[in-house]
């Protein structure tokens, strides 16, 4: 994926200007930046929900739309949320119309549930699942349609350390096993350094990219 | 009991009504639209009163008012900030209109009570056919958009991300809800719509955790209430709505009790 001279705005208010970066298939890009610099806005543009004001977003096969799985930053599922984890994950199976799932869909559902360690809690209502389990359910829902790119918007923000590693270990497994590209938005530098291979640092109208080893850590921490 | 035409009509109509209310109710609960449903029912009351005033069947007046206003109601539900007070204002306006229509039409007050509280005696065979037809339309549309509607209702954020057109679904759903409200009012009356349109589904979600299972259970709860209510009403000559309300509330209480124990 190639992003060139991208500018994004809400109405008259510019959020992003002249952003350039490149993401190769199978790579893991950490996007770092303060609150409000436009990280979520960038994601919306990648998903095609926001028209660029200028610049282009190109995917490797130009004609074909890239399949993107996205775990959004906010989701409001309260304690009384009734669906089981399994039914929640299955929600994004929308390529067919009939109310019931066919054999292939059931197989795919079981496979994803197993890969994300959700089989044990498959029948528990999502409202009663722990924060980490919820994040794994969101992840499974995003992965069930076999995306080529996975975008995680601060998915680890509410998790303790152990859970963070567990979730990202899972993501890394998918990245390597299925040639999945990952964009991971985070404020957590150690986490980014551990899992990402490239970074995109966003400051107001100023963007830096590079190999994760070259991440200017001190400079970021000063902010 | 079923040798009487009007009881047969009531049972057939009640069966269709229970099926669509159970189905729609699951989505009404998931989309947090109980309050809005009630407003639509009050708009429906005004419509029915208008129908009486101009000499139409009450159902047609209801359909006219609820379907026409569903777009407006949808607008209100989008801007959530002032939502509740706006909805209350709309309810008040339509209740007032309904009272006016009834007052200036030279009907006895019995037509008012049957619109507000339901009546099983008045259902003609033509109306049974109409109720059956409308129910089929509702079921078919739900089947056609089942997966998108399910996704949008139970995970709006996820649905948006997956490219589902939430606005379109909301509009279609509101029209379906307007139809359901008008149909259900034929038995339980417009004041007691939520007995069938929200309580069975609200109860079901404490017992099962899949959308399809919730629909099946909600339909069963609605059917039990309707059939038993009609039967008890026939035996005692007390209002059917009273029995249906009591049965559905008992089921709901049992559901809450079950949830606390679990
Ligand atoms: N729908 C919108 N309309 C107008 N302005 C918006 C909209 N969404 C976001 N903004 C503004 O755009 C800017 C960037 O927001 P964005 O959500 O992309 O930030 P972010 O980098 O994701 O922040 P955070 O780290 O807090 O998630 C903010 O100033 C925000 O107020
Ligand atoms: Mg954000």
What do you see in this structure?
Chain B: It holds the Pfam family ABC-3. Chain B: Belongs to the ABC-3 integral membrane protein family. Chain B: Keywords: Membrane, Transmembrane, Transmembrane helix, Transport. Chain B: The chain crosses the membrane at residues 6-30, 42-65, 85-104, 116-146, 166-199, 211-234, 240-259. Chain B: It is a multi-pass membrane protein. The complex is a heterodimer of chains A (223) and B (262). Chain A has 223 residues and is an alpha/beta fold. Chain A has one domain: Rossmann fold. Helix content of chain A is 32%, strand content 26%. A 6-stranded mixed beta sheet of chain A has the order 5-6-7-3-8-9, with helices on both faces. In chain A, strands 2-1-4 form a 3-stranded antiparallel beta sheet, with helices on one face. The longest helix of chain A is centred in the last third of the chain and has 18 residues, at 161-178. The model of chain A has no long low-confidence stretch (mean pLDDT 89). With 262 residues, chain B is mainly α. Chain B has one domain (5-261): ABC transporter involved in vitamin B12 uptake, BtuC (Orthogonal Bundle), CATH 1.10.3470. Chain B is built from 13 helices and no strands. In chain B, helix 2 (34-54) runs parallel beside helix 4 (83-104), helix 6 (125-144) runs antiparallel to helix 9 (166-188) and helix 12 packs across helix 13. Chain B is globular and about 55 Å long. Classes of the chains: A alpha/beta (223), B mainly alpha (262). The A-B interface holds A 47, 49, 70, 72, 74-77, 80, 82-84, 87-88, 91-94, 96-100, 123, 125, 138, 141 and B 30, 143-144, 146-148, 150-151, 154-155, 157-162, 164, 205-206, 209-212, 214. The complex binds adenosine-5'-triphosphate and magnesium ion. Adenosine-5'-triphosphate is lined by residues 10, 13, 15, 33, 35-41, 73 of chain A.
Summarize this structure briefly:
Chain A is α/β, with parallel strands linked by helices and 223 residues long.
């Amino acid at each position: 994926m190639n992003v060139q001279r991208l500018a994004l705005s809400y109405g008259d208010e510019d959020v992003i200007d002249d952003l350039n970066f490149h993401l190769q298939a199978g790579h893991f890009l950490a996007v770092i930046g303060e609150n409000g610099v436009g990280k979520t806005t960038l994601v919306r543009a990648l998903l095609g929900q926001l028209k660029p004001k200028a610049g282009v977003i190109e995917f490797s096969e130009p004609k074909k739309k890239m399949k993107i799985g996205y775990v959004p930053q906010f989701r409001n599922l309260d304690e009384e949320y009734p669906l089981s984890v399994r039914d929640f994950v299955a929600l994004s199976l929308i390529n067919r119309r009939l109310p019931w799932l066919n054999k292939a869909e059931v197989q795919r559902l079981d496979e994803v549930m197993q890969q994300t360690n959700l089989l044990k809690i498959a029948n528990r209502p999502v409202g009663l699942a722990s924060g980490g389990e919820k994040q794994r359910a969101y992840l499974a829902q995003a992965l069930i349609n076999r995306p080529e790119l996975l975008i995680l918007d601060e998915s680890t923000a509410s998790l303790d350390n152990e859970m963070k590693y567990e979730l990202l270990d899972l993501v890394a497994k998918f990245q390597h096993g299925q040639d999945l590209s990952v964009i991971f938005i985070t404020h957590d530098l150690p986490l980014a350094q551990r899992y990402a291979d490239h970074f995109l640092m966003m400051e107001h109208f100023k963007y830096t990219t590079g190999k994760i080893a070259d991440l200017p850590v001190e400079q970021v921490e000063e902010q | 009991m079923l040798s009487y035409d009007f009881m047969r009509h009531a049972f057939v109509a009640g069966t269709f009504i229970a099926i669509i209310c159970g189905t729609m109710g699951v989505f009404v609960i998931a989309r947090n639209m109980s309050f809005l449903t009630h407003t639509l029912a009050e708009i429906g009351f005004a419509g029915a009163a208008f129908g009486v005033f101009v000499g139409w069947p009450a159902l047609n007046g209801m359909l006219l008012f609820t379907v026409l206003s569903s777009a407006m109601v949808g607008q209100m539900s989008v801007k959530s900030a002032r939502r509740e007070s706006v909805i209350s204002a709309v309810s008040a306006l339509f209740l007032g209109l309904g009272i006016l229509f009834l007052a200036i039409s030279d009907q006895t007050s019995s037509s008012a009570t049957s619109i507000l509280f339901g009546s099983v005696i008045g259902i003609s065979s033509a109306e049974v056919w109409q109720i059956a037809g409308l129910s089929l339309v509702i079921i078919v549309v739900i089947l056609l958009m089942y997966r998108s509607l399910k996704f949008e209702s139970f995970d709006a954020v996820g649905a948006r991300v997956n490219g589902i057109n939430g606005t379109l679904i909301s509009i279609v759903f509101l029209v379906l809800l307007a139809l359901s409200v008008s149909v259900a009012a034929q038995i339980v009356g417009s004041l007691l719509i939520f007995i069938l349109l929200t309580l069975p589904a609200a109860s079901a979600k404490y017992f099962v955790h899949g959308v399809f299972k919730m629909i099946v259970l909600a339909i069963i709860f609605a059917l039990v209430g309707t059939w038993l209510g009609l039967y008890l009403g026939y035996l005692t000559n007390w209002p059917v709505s009273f029995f249906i309300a009591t049965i559905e509330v008992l089921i709901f209480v049992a559901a809450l009790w079950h949830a606390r124990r679990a």
